[in-house]
Design goal:
Blueprint: E1 5-11, H1 18-25, E2 31-37, H2 43-48, E3 55-59, H3 65-78, E4 83-86, H4 98-104, E5 114-118, H5 132-149, E6 161-164, H6 165-168, H7 180-190, E7 195-199, H8 218-235
Parallel strand pairs: 1-2, 1-4, 2-3, 5-7
Antiparallel strand pairs: 4-6, 5-6
Helix pairs in contact: 5-8, 7-8
Length: 248
């Protein structure tokens, strides 16, 4: 029997990209969900042009990247999908890979609860150069996760993922912002999820994208990520701790 696959895009103020990205996604995905996270630009008007072809869930106010993904998780569970693919709406990800990553969840040789994209698993000829602070923080956090949790990954923050929907019901994600993936990795490790990676190109179209307020400062952001990690470890009753020099 064919898996029911939902492709979800968290969207906040993406009027510049949303039309072109959706047009591409619709070439490769049947069921598409857009979570409009309280956009205040022209995103809602752009989405109105697709309302007969995509599913739309709207937050009345901006709640954050993590909150938008939580809405997508709940939607996939509620409506009985088998696989959820998440893809960002800023043009970084290649919609042509949606079918491939979705199929890896039920790969007969290596089935997975989560298949996570990695921009560092291999090098593509047309790769961008990552902003140095983002690359450094990603590498530090990725190494911390490997050292402390035994999670064999190379990219902690790639938003292009596929999930086994039946596994999503076991998550208890509470972080609404960009630190949400850190809760996800800890819970996935604690739940003994089967995790695999797939290589995706490294593309940065907007190197100045804001994380919001003080988090635009790289050291503040790194400290925040460590704080989220340690709070989640405590919440799960896990003994590991991420210290200031972890991953450096």
């Amino acid at each position: 029997m064919t898996d029911r696959i939902l492709t979800a895009l968290p969207v906040f103020n993406e009027a510049t990209h949303v039309k072109s990205v959706l047009q591409q996604v619709l070439n490769y995905a049947d069921d598409v969900l857009v979570v409009n996270d309280g956009s205040t630009d022209g995103t809602a008007a752009a989405l109105a042009e697709f309302e007969d072809r995509v599913l739309i869930e709207s937050h009345p106010e901006n709640r954050g990247y993590g909150a938008a993904l939580q809405t997508a998780f709940k939607y996939a569970v509620r409506y009985g999908y088998d696989v959820l693919v998440t893809i960002d709406c800023d043009g970084q990800h290649q919609p042509g890979l949606i079918g491939e990553v979705a199929s890896l969840v039920n790969d007969p040789g290596q089935p997975a609860d989560m298949v996570s994209g990695s921009r560092y698993l291999r090098t593509f000829d047309d790769n961008s150069i990552a902003p140095e602070d983002r690359r450094r923080i990603n590498m530090q956090i990725t190494r911390c996760l490997k050292e402390k949790l035994g999670v064999e990954i190379t990219d902690a923050f790639c938003g292009f993922k596929a999930y086994r929907v039946s596994a999503l019901a076991d998550l208890d994600i509470t972080d609404p912002g960009y630190a949400m993936p850190l809760q996800l990795w800890i819970q996935a490790a604690d739940l003994d999820w089967q995790i695999s990676e797939f290589a995706v190109p490294l593309v940065y179209l907007d190197e100045e994208r804001s994380f919001g307020g003080s988090l635009d400062d790289a050291e503040v952001r790194l400290a925040h990520y460590r704080d989220v990690l340690n709070k989640e470890l405590s919440r799960r009753g896990m003994k590991q701790r991420f210290t200031a020099d972890c991953g450096q």
